[in-house]
Design a protein that fits this description.
The protein is an alpha+beta fold and 301 residues long. It has two domains: 248 residues, PPM-type phosphatase domain (Phosphatase 2c, domain 1, 4-Layer Sandwich), CATH 3.60.40.10; 40 residues. The chain is 37% helix and 22% strand. The chain has nine helices and ten strands. Strands 1-10-9-6-7 form a five-stranded antiparallel sheet, covered by helices on one side. Helix 1 packs antiparallel against helix 2.
Amino acid sequence: MAAWIHDEGMAQGSRSRQEDDYGVFELPPELEAGELLLVLADGMGGEQAGALASALAVRGFIEAYDAAPAATIPERLERTLEHVNGRMALEVAADPASLHGMGCTLLAVVLAEEGAYWISVGDSPLWLWRRGRLRRLNQDHAYRSILADQVSTGEISAAEAACHPDRNALISAVTGEQLELVDLSRQPCPLKPGDQILLASDGVLTLSEREIAAVLTETRTTGSPCQSLLAAVASRQHPHQDNITVLWARSASTSPTLSLWQRPWLRTSLLAGMLSLLAAGGAWWWQARHGVSPVARAIAP
């Protein structure tokens, strides 16, 4: 079983309330359904509904994941999402006057020995950092993804897409109604030594992916990048800064930033080689001091 180093961070931005929520749960080995579960939700619905939706989604997902009847991790993720969406429907039905329109994005990641699995609804990004580069793993369920397709086909210009008033509108969310789009990884994304996994609410997109990658690169030897990411967002002083949540993890089993001498297996080999050289040199010196040629001694009867 791999050991995972992880950290989390949140900031309210310039919003009047915090509508993000998250949870991290170390999975029991006997479950045989992964090793670390990370869940993040970004609420919507106004007043307290957004905060309620994200809290309900995160806690419901963590509570239901280990009880979901499933043979594989993707099946377990899928059934857990269905359970959470059903609970959201019951919550809205209990108080429709106050909770109509309540919902949230949801991003859940399971880290296992074979790699990373995920399920997501909405626009909360999941990234893989590898060797200084950032790659988004999950789909973006915001209207900007449709605009990007239109730009690629020449229907609109990049400038038109960038200023489109609906570019950040969600085209899928957990609301208790039928889920329009769900991104589920049927196969794990294999992780290599030194890889970093980052989950975030879309408030972090005040930074570009290149800037986010730079923070992960700068902090790879000093620990978690979460506080550095939050500080970088805050430094922009965006007047309408959204809530920001970041969850980060990497494997603790290997560290590519260790020097050669810090790697135990290599240190042992080097020490053994040095001792062998010292022993051989000592034997040669003793034979020379006593007037015995090593060659002569080798052929003496």
